[in-house]
Amino acid sequence: MSTEIKKTSDIKITVGLDEKNIPAKITWEAEDNPNGKGAQEVKAVLISFFDRETKDTLKIDLWTQDMQVIEMDRFIFQTLRAIADTYHRATQNKGLANEMQRFVTYFGEKTEIIPKQ
Fold first, then answer.
1. Residue ranges per domain, the chain?
2. pTM, whole model, 2 decimals?
3. Fewer beta carbons within 10 angstroms: which end of the chain, N or C?
């Protein structure tokens, strides 16, 4: 696999804080954003980095003060579903990915994001 960099792309995240340093507004923008140019406002962001040297995961979890619990439930449900899909694509471990999806379904039912089966 080639490690030669052919292109770079920057992702910019801007967090506006209130007087108590709580996020009041979060925007992001990227040159390659398929939704268009310019900053897009969001209510939450989860970012994880896997450190090459220490093998630790570094993370940033931010959400705005106006994010409602039902919105957080949906955000986490969709994130967990995406993580299970990513895990399967990266490892081809279908059995464990299916078990992860079972938990996602359980979470979705418990939070009433999806109807109980």
1. 1-65, 68-117
2. 0.88
3. N
- Identify whether the C-beta of residue 60 lies closer than 8 Å to the C-beta of residue 47: yes
Q: Where are the alpha helices (H) located in the chain, listed in sequence order?
A: 69-91, 94-110
Within 10 A of 89 (CB to CB), how many other CB atoms are there? 9
Tokens of 55: 């093998």
pLDDT tens by residue, 51-76: 999 999 999 999 999 999 999 999 99
> Residue 92: what are its φ and ψ, rounded to 5°?
60, 20
What gap in Å lies between CA 80 and CA 109, rounded to an integer?
A: 13
Residues in contact with 113: Cβ distance below 8 Å, sequence separation at least 6, in sequence order = 73, 74, 77, 107
Structure tokens at 72: 């957080």
* 7 pLDDT above the threshold of 80: yes
Please say if the pLDDT value at position 88 is more than 60: yes
Task: Give the C-alpha separation, 74 to 64, whole Å.
Answer: 15
The percentage of the chain sitting over the pLDDT mark of 90, rounded to a whole number, equals 85
